[in-house]
Design a protein that fits this description.
By secondary structure, this protein is α/β, with parallel strands linked by helices. It has a domain at 3-162: Rossmann fold (3-Layer(aba) Sandwich), CATH 3.40.50.620. It is built from ten helices and eight strands. The chain has helices at 12-25, 44-56, 73-80, 90-107, 121-130, 138-141, 146-155, 162-165, 182-191, 193-206, and strands at residues 3-7, 30-35, 60-62, 111-113, 211-213, 216-218, 238-239, 243-244. The strands form three sheets. The protein has a four-stranded parallel β-sheet with strand order 3-2-1-4. Strands 5-6 form a two-stranded antiparallel sheet. The chain has a two-stranded antiparallel sheet with strand order 7-8. A hairpin with a 3-residue loop joins strand 7 and strand 8. The radius of gyration is 18 Å and the shape is globular.
Length: 246
């Protein structure tokens, strides 16, 4: 039987993608649901993971980079003396991509499933052209959108991750360094001031200008608390096999 790896990120889309994959292929393929843990994510993500595990009826596995067993993005930034750039962030490379490659070397999956939704078809097309072409578009084929994923979870009685209810566009790490929007960083400042200060201190120490205002990169401690950029619903800050900033 061929193997399918579903990369579950503790987000709504990847949760529904896992459910659809099991419905479509659970009797014909070996399906692994795999998560890359990162300690800088909100603690409620762990609650969500186990709620989803019960909903799926299968055990969720974990893929960790043996070089970073603590699964800490902060540790990666300090060790690499680098936080983020136009080509992505080292935390995604170390804690997601390399952790996945190590897991794949042992389990050798034939297919992959990520949380690409119907409204992200362009991103999916770009991904299979530039990264890998053995990705099953289970949500796209079913024309399931991001909002549909949230509705499906709520209908199943699963409370969505707290990060969504706080106004964030995803359930990534709090203070994701791939974000450059002043709207995003001022939300972090309001909702998680202690994390904003940590990111500001570390980015200043490393020399990483994380936020963009008027098309100019500045340090977080230079950001006007009233500055705004695009609405958060338009941001595409992703943390998966690929890595994009917004």
């Amino acid at each position: 039987m061929e193997k399918i790896a579903v990369w579950f990120s503790c987000g709504a889309a990847s949760a529904v993608a896992a459910k659809k994959t099991l419905e479509l292929y659970g009797y014909t393929h070996v399906v692994h649901i795999v998560n890359n843990p990162v300690i800088e994510e909100d603690a409620d993500n762990v609650r969500f993971l186990y709620d989803v595990q019960r909903w799926l009826g299968v055990k969720i596995e974990f893929a960790r980079n043996i070089n970073f067993p603590a699964c800490s993005a902060v540790q990666v930034w300090d060790k690499r003396n680098f936080m983020s750039g136009p080509l992505g962030a080292p935390c995604t490379i170390e804690l997601k991509k390399y952790a996945r490659q190590q897991w794949e070397a042992t389990h050798k999956p034939d297919w992959h499933v990520l949380g690409f939704t119907w409204d992200e078809k362009t991103r999916y097309d770009r991904f299979i052209e530039t990264e890998r072409d053995n990705v099953l578009p289970v949500l796209i084929d079913a024309k399931i959108t991001k909002q549909d994923c949230i509705d499906i979870l709520l209908d199943a009685g699963i409370k969505i991750p707290r990060m969504y209810t706080l106004g964030y566009p995803n359930a990534n790490c709090i203070g994701c360094v791939k974000a450059t929007s002043p709207t995003y960083w001022n939300l972090v400042r309001r909702q998680h001031p202690e994390i904003f200060e940590q990111r500001a201190e570390q980015s200043r120490r490393i020399g990483a200008r994380l936020v963009r205002v008027n098309n100019q990169r500045i340090f977080l401690d230079e950001l006007d608390p009233l500055a705004k950029g695009r609405p958060l619903k338009h941001l595409q800050i992703d943390c998966g096999i690929f890595c994009e900033e917004s």
